[in-house]
Amino acid sequence: MTVYGAWIIGFALFYTAALIFVGQFAKRRAAQGGEGYFVGGRNFNRWMVCFCITGLFSGSTFIAVLELAYLQGVSAIWYGVAETIQILIIAFVIIGPFRKKLVVTVTGLIGDRYGRSAKALAGAITAFTFPMWSVATAIAFASALHVFTGISLTMSVAFTAILLFIYLQAGGMWSIAFTQTMNFGVFMLMFAIGIYAFFVNPGIEGLQQFAAQRPQMFDFDSVGLQVIVAWFGTFLVNVILAQAAFQMALSCKTPEEGQKGLKLAAWFGIPFTVCAILFGIAAAAVVPDGKLGLIALPQYLMQVLPAPLVGLFFLGVWACALSWGAPCQFSGATSLGRDVGSAVFPKASNDRLVTYTKWSLLLLTVLMIVFGLMRTEQSAWWNIFAWTARNSATFAPVVAALFWPQVTRAAVLASLGTGFASGVTWYYLGGWHVSQFYLNIHPVWIGMSVNVITIIVMTLLFSAQSWKLRRVSEKPAHYAALAVGAVLAGVVAVNFDVLHTKGLVGLLVFSALVALFISVIGILDTVKASGARAAQNKAS
């Protein structure tokens, strides 16, 4: 182990002890009863929401953008822009209605509307995808740690997973609030050290020389239009499914307080993107031949900084991994323990559901370690699989729960199953590759398209005798959505070969189906579910 590694391990152990100590204070707050464990008793102020959301989104964005900036340059900024837009949409559109409904999880929302079986299926699918997202970011950090210490990626992932379990099970959402606030302070220290390293080498003059040598690194479209579109599509779709973010933001005292916290988080996220690009390009200028940014970055820092500063910087990178992993693990455990638990045992008390959630957190910790063993060096694979599995199952049911009361339990169960199965099957047909997909179509677009088609077709079949078209003057926006869908379908038909080559067919077809989905919800006036049917849905 190098002297740099010794400092990193020393700081990590000290910070671990601090997190566990703070977890004991969180445990006292969570023990106050009610929904304290799951949503902090809905007592978070704007700053607590801000630090929670900043840690979740901006922490993971920092790692992703840093990696992209090392390889592609300033065009990585679009990833950060897409993430910021997602936060603002949640703030202005989603947080108010969800807070008024007292939503805890997306899977709970589905279950409250469509019954226990839908809650159990949606909760199980969602729960088992969260450790995949957690392990993806943990692997990215472990890759950098390995350069300094020689510690294996698997051991680093296991240590991170166990630490998350120790402090999360104690205080639940309060643990996340306290630790995300601590992590934010570490982020600021990391930025200060990184900026100092930049001015040491390469500095402004060195950056200008690098720009002359590799001008493509300073093109805002060097990463490619397809990738940029995919980033925006991913974040826009996730607006309605960002369960971990919802659970933290919905812990606010009022919808207005939560909205203010999210807007602050959007502003606070800007330095994460800017600094990640700066550090990534600096590493590319000094260590130009690396294959991965998080491997080249420690090699760069060892050339320009003393060991203690390098240790503090990578404490910040680890805080990024923890800030993403903690909400993911806890939200997944909430879906499994609270939602699946209440579906299987409908008479369980809140204390019993907290116990189920703690056991679920232990199970997801084991899964996170197992996932790390299975594909230790392929963090992107876990992101793709998790995104495909969760979104392919739950997108249409969540939209229906919010906007289409005519949808039946049978239609939701069918869409959950067909969406999940089709998305995962499409990924399998592509050989589980991280960038080359079957027929050049990302599996998530297939799964979500089948998800939408299934819920539309089954709902219309169940209400076939009661269709009635509303006039354009009644629903102009929905007729406009129908027109947009038709235009998108026409664009795909006319330009299929070009779009297929660029990998945009799946995204555009899904966009057309979403436009159709919106139009059907508003244009077709079908008989709403009777009180008896609604009661049956909820009880099933």
Automatic annotation (TrEMBL):
Top-level taxon in the UniProt lineage: Bacteria
Name of a matching Pfam family: SSF
Name of the protein described by the UniProt record: Sodium:solute symporter family protein
PROSITE patterns: NA_SOLUT_SYMP_3
Family, as annotated: Belongs to the sodium:solute symporter (SSF) (TC 2.A.21) family.
GO MF assignments: transmembrane transporter activity
Keyword Transmembrane helix: yes
Organism: Paenibacillus xerothermodurans
Gene3D superfamilies, alphabetized: Sodium/glucose cotransporter
GO terms under cellular component: plasma membrane
Predominant cellular place of this UniProt entry's protein: membrane
